[in-house]
Amino acid sequence: MKVGADDVEEPLAGGDVTEGVVRVGDTVRRPVSGVSESVRRVLGHLESVRFAGAPRFHGIDAKDRDILDFIAGEVAGRPWPAWVADPERIASVARLVRAFDDAMEPLGVPRWATGLRPPDVPGMPASIAEAPTLVAHLDITPENVVFHDARAAALIDFDMIRPASRAEEVANMLLWWGGWMPEPDREAASRHLDPIEAGALIVETYGMDAAARSTLVEISINGADRSWFLMKSRAEMFGGGWQRMWEEGVGDRILRRAQWLRDNATELQRAVRSTNQTSADQS
Predict the structure, then answer these.
(1) Model-level pTM?
(2) In whole angstroms, what is the distance from residue 129 CA to residue 165 CA?
(3) Burial of 83 (0-12, 13-18, 19+ CB in 10 A)
(4) By the 8 A CB rule, do 11 and 21 touch?
């Protein structure tokens, strides 16, 4: 891939933490970070298994930035567009994430990936998730999904990858695409979403088995509880975007989410149970 030295750099908006991401021609340039080498390995694996829904890594430029494909398409900015709540688009995200997880599973959890899991911090509750089976994306926000013809076509921004279970990956999707948080804390475009219907749609389309479904609500609650400590720790340790988000109230939003999940746990659990299981219970 050739890019001239005098090509214009176009800043790309949307990231909460990583600054300095730009487009140069048909590439994206991202500052090298502590997770860059792991991201390169993941993208290399995805290329080797011919997964089309992710950018390719093309080396490092003269400014010590990773060179990645720029994937053209439709990406949600802020405020989110109304189509973020479209059921067909939501279902297409679930299909894309399932395809991504299927592509990642053969890689397993290699030794180089074990250090990606954030360390526990004092006071943080232990994770209740099953042992990780893959290196998951875990940042499936509307800003990180590229759409073609109103269908999710690619995932971008792999800075949050880490070993996880499929249930943890789906819980992340439920947060951003299922509206699993208090209505006032959602983006305006998704405030009218029914989290019961959206949750059922995501889980059914992804194709989770009954055992994994049974853990989703508790994993979501546990994830919110742990996230408060992680976000506070990152704000204190790294400053920058982490500190800005903390000062803007992300910690309070996480606490409200955890309480909302607890208050609605019974209905949410019913929503994500398999169709067969629900039918059996009613017979």
Answers:
(1) 0.91
(2) 7
(3) middle
(4) yes
One-letter amino acid of 56: R
| Residue 15: partners with Cβ closer than 8 Å, 6 or more residues away | 21, 143, 157, 241
Q: Rounded distance, CA 44 to CA 113, Å? A: 14
Give the integer Cα–Cα distance in Å for 31 and 18. Answer: 8
**Residue tagged 């889980």 (tokens):** 203
For residue range 38-62, what is the model confidence (pLDDT) as tens digits?
Answer: 999 999 999 999 999 999 999 999 9
Least confident of 5-19, 86-100, 242-256, 261-275: 5-19
Residue 1 has pLDDT above 80, yes or no: no
Q: Look at residues 116, 115, 122, 114 and name the one whose alpha carbon lies nearest to residue 232.
A: 122
**Assigned CATH topology for domain 82-282:** Aminoglycoside 3'-phosphotransferase; Chain: A, domain 2 (3.90.1200)
pLDDT in tens, 106-165: 999 999 999 998 888 999 999 999 999 999 999 999 999 999 999 999 999 999 999 999
pLDDT at 265: 97
